[in-house]
Design goal:
mainly alpha; 7 helices; about 70% helix; globular; ARM-like; NOC3p domain-containing protein
Length: about 160
């Protein structure tokens, strides 16, 4: 845990990779608690200004939303995850740094295409959001979702 808050970016990046590896091997009975801890880590580190660390955090976000939640049947927690992370994701998708914004959008698109229940939770959050400074990212995410998922889509 100490490495997650290190001043050295390499240690933060390695700690995030370690978190992902630990999440891959946890028992189903403890999955909900680990999901809460993972979301807390994501909330802090999705704001990391260093691109290398941010890419690792996006990989963790992708893993949690596309594999961890479906594998452990934690779909009931998806709206809470979307609520906690939606604002930060919209701000990073609107970022002036094209690398960060582009990678954020590609991860969000992948999440939206993988699991319908998780996609519904995130899209609901993105459509209702009024994040100041996140409108560009919000519009891009919604546009990409309508193109990839099709509209109207009764499942989402």
């Amino acid at each position: 845990v100490r490495s997650l808050y290190s001043k050295k970016w390499e240690e933060r990046k390695n700690a995030i990779t370690t978190v992902r590896q630990r999440l891959e091997n946890i028992p189903p009975t403890e999955a909900a608690g680990y999901l809460d801890a993972g979301v807390a880590i994501l909330q802090r580190h999705l704001k990391d200004p260093l691109h290398n660390v941010y890419v690792s955090v996006l990989e963790l976000l992708n893993f949690i939303c596309t594999r961890f939640i479906p594998q452990h049947n934690l779909h009931k927690m998806a709206p809470a995850v979307a609520k906690d992370l939606g604002r930060i994701i919209l701000l990073r998708a609107s970022d002036n740094d094209r690398r960060s914004a582009g990678e954020t959008l590609s991860v969000v698109n992948e999440i939206l295409e993988q699991d319908v229940k998780v996609a519904k939770a995130f899209l609901t959050r993105f459509l209702r959001s009024t994040v100041r400074g996140g409108q560009r990212g919000q519009a891009t995410i919604v546009q990409n979702a309508t193109e990839s998922l099709g509209t109207p889509n009764a499942e989402v």
